[in-house]
């Protein structure tokens, strides 16, 4: 049994009951359509499916629901596999809905032979008109009374490519007056003259999702087919297909509430639009809620999985605060990430009474909350960089950082006092001249006097150039409105050029650090070079969010 699954949910209750009533094994599946990259909502479904099966000693298939050749691509197939593996899950079998096209076709033929399906001549619009509304029953189509022989012949000719897209469809013959609109003779096959990423040009007819999905589940012996709430009304159709197609296995569809996050759009269609219209840098842009984006941002599988477990599984729609996700990455990195100093917007400080050409190496702990991580050496010399925002020429009251005449502590080093402000011709501050007090060295227990401000800094001659990418929400609207492109935040990315400590020279891609006062950062795996490291800010240090 997995230690991850301590909390209970309504699906576990169903499974326990089923096991008590004779089920031998639990089989789940994660069934993405390969028409985009996976997002954090999919992670919720992945965690749920894989961990449920794991907890009850069952298995989970990864199945690509590739029944729509117009939108699917192998690039998506590969990225989906990669994201699931990165999260740390192993699928039992890798399946493709397209592997079952023959069987699905045969099952549709079976329905026709049983008088339970027919070939429809009406157009999409006519079908819609005939379908009726929630208040009014639908009307039966003239095609509904076609003979079985004629239906079989037409379906065969559809398969052979004798008709154009949209010219004919196959519909299940169920009940045009059903209160459930999904049961009013739903379309189960359509014509699409398109090349499929897996089956090439073998087929020009493709099964519709609501017909294909139950068959896929049944073929694989899935016992619990877990999906999101919007499929609830389709459950009667799901059961009808399994039953009437005479499938041996009888999978059970169970719905749960999808994950919605504040300031986030989640549908792949919208995410694709953000990519295609260059609002972001690609599917793995660190601002994207995709698994590959979160990974590049610096999220860990552990943080994502803990978040998914914590939000729970319910049957009511809800909106989760994105700050809750941020909480889990902070928690995960708190003890793991080395702490170092970086300067994002540098201002040069010359320490005029420090010997020229000398460099001393000061001791600093790597993570004060985790002593096992040991200590590091950081250089100190006559020239350092501090943050521009840590100096003000005319400060307001209660400003405790650097200003002319004021003394502050340099983290891990000495007290310094600002004496002179050097400006360029336009009057911009370009350099500060300070003096240090050798008596105040950090770690020597100096108690002579106190200062209120502590600044972070980076020694200048050894400093390593770095780029910092600072992110804000990609979407401004809390709930992600319908015209979401208007809600895209024009200031979601700020790029800063500064410095990191000399000891970061051997940082590797995806290494994670806590930069003093700035937050947690990840070494960007795509854009970092030996000359210049690029850091993505994962999250700031503090949040107002309480669990
Ligand atoms: P989207 O609308 O974002 O494109 P989808 O449901 O069309 O999502 P699929 O590839 O069909 O995407 O989904 C694969 C699985 O992930 C399905 O079982 C689906 O129910 C689940 N899933 C998708 N989005 C979410 C979400 N936001 N929360 C939980 N599960 C989700
Ligand atoms: Mg979909």
Molecular structure report:
This protein has 12 helices and 25 strands. It is an alpha/beta fold and 547 residues long. The strands form 6 sheets. Strands 10-23-24-25-21-22-11 form a 7-stranded mixed beta sheet, with helices on one face. Strand 17 (415-423) and strand 18 (429-437) form a beta hairpin. Helix 7 crosses helix 8. The longest helix is centred in the N-terminal third of the chain and has 16 residues, at 40-55. Residues 1-5 have low confidence and may be disordered. Bound molecules: adenosine-5'-triphosphate and magnesium ion.
Distance between the termini: 27 Å
The CATH first-level class of the domain at 3-256 comes to Alpha Beta
Main sheet strand line-up: 10-23-24-25-21-22-11
What is the 3D shape?
Answer: elongated
Q: What is the CATH topology classification name of the domain at 3-256?
A: Rossmann fold
SS element count, helices: 12
Q: What is the radius of gyration?
A: 31 Å
- The overall strand count is 25
The average pLDDT is 95
């Amino acid at each position: 049994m997995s230690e991850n699954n301590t909390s209970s949910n309504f699906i576990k209750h169903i499974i326990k009951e089923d096991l008590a009533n004779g089920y031998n094994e639990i089989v789940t599946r994660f069934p993405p359509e390969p028409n985009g990259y996976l997002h954090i909502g999919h992670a919720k479904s992945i965690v749920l499916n894989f961990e449920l099966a794991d907890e009850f000693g069952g298995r989970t298939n990864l199945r690509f629901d590739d029944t729509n050749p117009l939108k699917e691509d192998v690039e998506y197939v590969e990225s989906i596999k990669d994201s699931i593996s990165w999260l740390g899950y192993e699928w039992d079998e890798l399946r493709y809905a397209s592997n079952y096209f023959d069987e699905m076709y045969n099952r549709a033929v079976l329905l026709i032979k049983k008088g339970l399906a027919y070939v429809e001549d009406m157009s999409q619009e006519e079908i819609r008109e005939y379908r009726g509304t929630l208040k009014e029953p639908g009307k039966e189509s003239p095609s509904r009374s076609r003979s079985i022989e004629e239906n079989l012949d037409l379906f065969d000719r559809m398969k052979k490519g004798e008709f154009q897209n949209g010219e004919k469809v196959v519909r299940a013959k169920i009940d045009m007056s059903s209160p459930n609109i999904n049961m009013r003779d739903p379309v189960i096959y359509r014509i699409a003259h398109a090349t499929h990423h897996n089956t090439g040009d073998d087929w020009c007819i493709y099964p519709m999702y609501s017909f294909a999905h139950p068959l896929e589940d049944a073929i694989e012996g899935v016992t619990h087919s877990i999906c999101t709430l919007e499929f609830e009304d389709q459950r009667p159709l799901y059961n009808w297909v399994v039953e009437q197609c005479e499938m041996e296995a009888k999978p059970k569809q169970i719905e749960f509430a999808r994950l919605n996050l504040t300031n986030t759009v989640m549908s792949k269609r919208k995410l694709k639009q953000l990519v295609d219209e260059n609002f972001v840098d690609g599917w793995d842009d660190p601002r994207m809620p995709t698994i590959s984006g979160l990974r590049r941002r610096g999220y860990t599988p552990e943080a994502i999985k803990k978040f998914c477990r914590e939000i729970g599984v319910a049957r009511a729609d809800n909106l989760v605060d994105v700050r809750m996700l941020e909480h889990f990455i902070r928690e995960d990195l708190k003890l793991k990430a080395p702490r170092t100093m970086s300067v994002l917007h540098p201002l040069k400080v010359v320490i005029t009474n420090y010997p020229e050409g000398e460099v001393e190496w000061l001791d600093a702990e790597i993570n004060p909350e985790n002593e096992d991580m040991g200590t590091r050496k950081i250089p100190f010399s006559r020239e350092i960089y501090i943050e521009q925002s840590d100096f003000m020429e005319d400060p307001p009251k209660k400003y405790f950082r650097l200003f002319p005449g004021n003394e502050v502590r340099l983290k891990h080093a000495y007290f310094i006092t600002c004496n002179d402000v050097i400006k360029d011709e336009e009057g911009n501050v370009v350099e500060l001249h300070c003096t240090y007090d050798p008596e105040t060295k950090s770690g020597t227990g100096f108690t002579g006097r106190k200062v209120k401000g502590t600044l972070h800094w980076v020694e200048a001659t050894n400093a390593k150039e770095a780029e910092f990418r600072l992110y804000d929400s990609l979407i401004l609207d809390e709930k992600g409105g319908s015209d979401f492109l208007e809600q895209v935040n024009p200031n979601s990315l700020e790029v800063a050029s500064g410095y990191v400590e000399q000891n970061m020279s051997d940082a590797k891609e995806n290494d994670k650090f806590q930069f003093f006062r700035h937050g947690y950062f990840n070494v960007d795996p795509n854009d970092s070079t030996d000359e210049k490291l690029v850091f993505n800010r994962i999250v700031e240090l503090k949040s107002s969010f309480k669990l």
